[in-house]
Design goal:
Elements lengths: L14 H7 L2 H4 L3 H17 L5 H20 L11 H13 L12 H37 L4 E6 L2 E7 H26 L1 E2 L15 H7 L4 E2 L3 H6 L2 H27 L7 E2 L18 H25 L12 H25 L1 E2 L1 H9 L5 H9 L5 H17 L9 H8 L12 H7 L8 H21 L12
Parallel strand pairs: 3-4
Antiparallel strand pairs: 1-2, 5-6
The structure holds arginine.
Length: 474
């Protein structure tokens, strides 16, 4: 068969070249977007009187029939037809004859693929945001169960101060809400239709670009045809948002791996989310969380790949841009899978509050409270810090905790005869005293939970960012 693009070529592509050049093996994933774009373009051609309406009806019906075939899985994608655009156009020609050739009036594959990618990223943003809402919901539910559970908070991986488990979980809630917002920001910049840019310079036909944009649920049209066909910033921004998201997922996963270790024993993985060892019968491994952590590399890698693909490209379209797809698709699939798995882990995780409290007691985590107490009684904080440090050293030398030092002894060590000194070392009181907005006191955590609930309810009722019927659920 002769090439799709023209008859000026005397011989077919070398077999290796055909394979190298083709994108159909992966861009068939854009079929829905491609057909939606073509239908909108065709309707506009009809309205503008560029192609007679009866022919447009034929074209649209043909495209709809092809879409049915693709959905049913009976459509034959052909490598010799290079990409999704040529595959659908050739199938349309087989169905309705040469009239099919009118569909490409005033359009190039360059603005066509730019459109398909924008449509894809738009629904992918919706998909990730939906998964994020479910993830945040799971975090909130678990946090609500643990508004009184104390555990050590860490800095430098050393036990630092007691915190509430819900506060710890809500910290991840904050990260995921920022991810949610970042994806929303990316959507607003993406929200313009490139159709009408042609190959690079626009088109000689009197297209109604705004109509096409509206049909496809875009708010605006792109302003510059050269930029529109060569721009993949929207894909970069999406990948960057996914890279940051994946770092958050990885941090949570890492924490769960640590917490499930014998050294911590703060959590037990549900059997459905853990695996065994082929050799060591006693092992229960948090493979799921480790894989979430590991897949971060892939997502960050895809962002870097696309950055590198784009960095040397002169205007306007260059075939290098075809390399945007696999990176984007895989990053999206991976992010969704990681979100779903981690959400399942979170929902089923068995927390060990007693073990957490035990770890909080060991290590004098309330030493700061004692120093704060002295500082509040007009001892300069630096000095108070030194006084308590001496008491900590004393406890260490005597192999006991600060709270085990008899009051008289403590008063003497600190040189501060006060009868409330030991109260300062109580864990629950220490937590409750951190009652500053954003702090870990149970009261503040209750406020934070209410705020987060309200946010989630609002986002859930707002639903997706794309109001149009297209794109479908992915
Ligand atoms: N398969 C191509 C891509 O993904 C479609 C655009 C091709 N345009 C061209 N002039 N070769 O980028």
């Amino acid at each position: 068969m002769a090439q799709q693009w023209s008859e000026r070529f005397a011989k077919p592509l070398d077999v290796l070249v055909a394979e190298f050049n083709a994108s159909i093996s992966f861009d068939q994933r854009l079929a829905e977007e491609d057909i939606a774009g073509s239908i909108a373009h065709a309707r506009m051609l009809g309205r503008q009187g560029i192609v007679p309406e009866p022919e447009i009806r034929l074209i649209v019906r043909g495209l709809e029939a092809i879409r049915e075939e693709i959905r049913a899985g009976t459509f034959q994608f052909r490598l010799d037809r290079e990409d999704i655009h040529f595959n659908i156009e050739a199938a349309l020609t087989e169905r309705i004859g040469p009239i099919a050739g009118k569909l490409h009036t005033g359009r190039s594959r360059n603005d066509q693929v730019a459109l398909d990618m924008r449509l894809f990223v738009r629904s992918a943003i919706d998909g990730v945001r939906r998964a994020l809402r479910v993830m945040i919901q799971a975090l909130l539910e678990r946090a609500e169960e643990h508004t009184r559970t104390v555990l050590p908070g860490y800095t430098h991986m050393q036990r630092a101060q007691p915190i509430i488990l819900a506060h710890h979980l809500l910290a991840y809630g904050e990260m995921f809400r920022r991810d949610y917002g970042r994806l929303g920001d990316a959507y607003h910049r993406l929200d313009e239709s490139p159709l009408g840019s042609g190959a690079l310079a626009g088109t000689t036909f009197p297209l109604d670009r705004a109509y096409v944009a509206h049909e496809l649920g875009f708010s605006r049209i792109t302003r510059n045809s050269l930029d529109a066909v060569s721009d993949r910033d929207f894909a970069l921004e999406f990948l960057a948002a996914l890279a940051v998201l994946s770092v958050h997922l990885s941090r949570l996963a890492e924490e769960l791996v640590l917490w499930s270790s014998q050294e911590f024993r703060f959590v037990i993985f549900d059997d459905a989310y853990a695996t065994g060892s082929s050799m060591m019968p006693q092992k229960k491994n948090p493979d799921t969380a480790e894989l979430v952590r590991g897949k971060t590399g892939r997502i960050i890698g895809h962002l870097v790949s696309l950055l590198v693909v784009l960095k040397g490209l002169p205007l306007a379209y260059n075939k290098d841009l075809q390399e945007d797809k696999e990176a984007l698709f895989d990053a999206y699939d991976t992010a969704i899978a990681c979100l779903r798995i981690l959400e399942g882990i979170m929902r089923t995780l068995i927390f060990q509050p007693e073990r957490m409290r035990e770890a909080t007691r060991a290590g004098d985590l309330t030493a700061t409270d004692l120093a704060d107490y002295l500082a509040a009684r007009s001892i300069p904080f630096r000095e108070a810090h030194g006084m308590v440090s001496r008491a900590v050293r004393y406890a260490e030398e005597h192999n006991c905790l600060l709270e085990d030092i008899p009051l008289v002894q403590l008063q003497e060590l600190l040189g501060f005869p006060d009868e409330h000194l030991l109260d300062m070392l109580n864990i629950d009181q220490a937590v409750a005293r951190r009652n500053v907005p954003g702090g870990t006191s149970p009261l503040q955590v209750e406020y934070a939970l209410l705020e987060a609930r309200a946010w989630l309810t609002q986002e859930q009722s707002a639903g997706g960012i794309t109001s149009s019927a297209f794109p479908e659920d992915r």
